[in-house]
Design a protein that fits this description.
Layout (H helix, E strand, L loop, with lengths): L8 H12 L5 H8 L3 H13 L19 E9 L4 H13 L3 E6 L6 E7 L2 H12 L5 E9 L15 H8 L3
Antiparallel strand pairs: 1-3, 1-4, 2-3
């Protein structure tokens, strides 16, 4: 398990604001946090070096790209052995329909979030790319009707102040 990094209240405010708007300027971020822009830049650089900030991602609307149907595929791999797991994950990650892959504990080995054009495309994906693989024992499909993003990710601990600042509630 990765080692956690000690973050002070200024770091937490920076992370909260960046998660809500990663395009905010350093000047605006520094002003909202109450530090000098150079201090803000130094802190962000430290958070990147320590691995707290992993990168920046562009979010796209799958429906506007012709992939209006999303689903979660629960997959059992049998036998569940290292020499099969690596190639399976590599293949699934390479599929243009795959959005994310989770390795799980429990009755299912993987949960794969996919985005496809329609039900026929989903059926093709499941039959041609999942169940056709010799190591896949079972696939269960769940359609996603709607998805919501949640609040910023912060370390565990006293959260009352963080929740109030994020939601504006006391």
């Amino acid at each position: 398990m990765a080692e956690s990094v000690v973050l002070d209240p200024v770091d937490l405010r920076i992370l909260r604001l960046l998660q809500n708007d990663a395009r905010i300027t350093y000047r605006d971020l520094a002003a909202q946090v109450g530090v000098a822009p150079s201090t803000c830049l130094d802190r962000i650089s430290r958070l990147r070096r320590s691995g707290v900030i992993l990168g920046h991602q562009l979010r796209l609307d799958p429906a506007k790209l012709g992939r209006g149907l999303e689903a979660l595929l629960s997959v059992q791999v049998r036998p569940h052995r290292r020499e099969l797991v690596g190639p399976f994950v590599d293949r699934i990650r390479a599929l243009p329909e795959s959005r994310s892959v989770f390795h799980l504990a429990g009755p299912d080995d993987y949960l794969v979030h996919v985005a496809v054009a329609d039900t026929a495309d989903l059926q093709r994906l499941v039959l041609d790319e999942f169940t056709a693989r010799h190591e896949v024992a079972r696939v269960e499909t769940r359609l996603i009707f709607q998805q919501w993003d949640c609040g910023p990710l912060l370390p565990p601990g006293p959260e009352a102040e963080s929740r109030e600042e994020t939601t504006g509630k006391s």
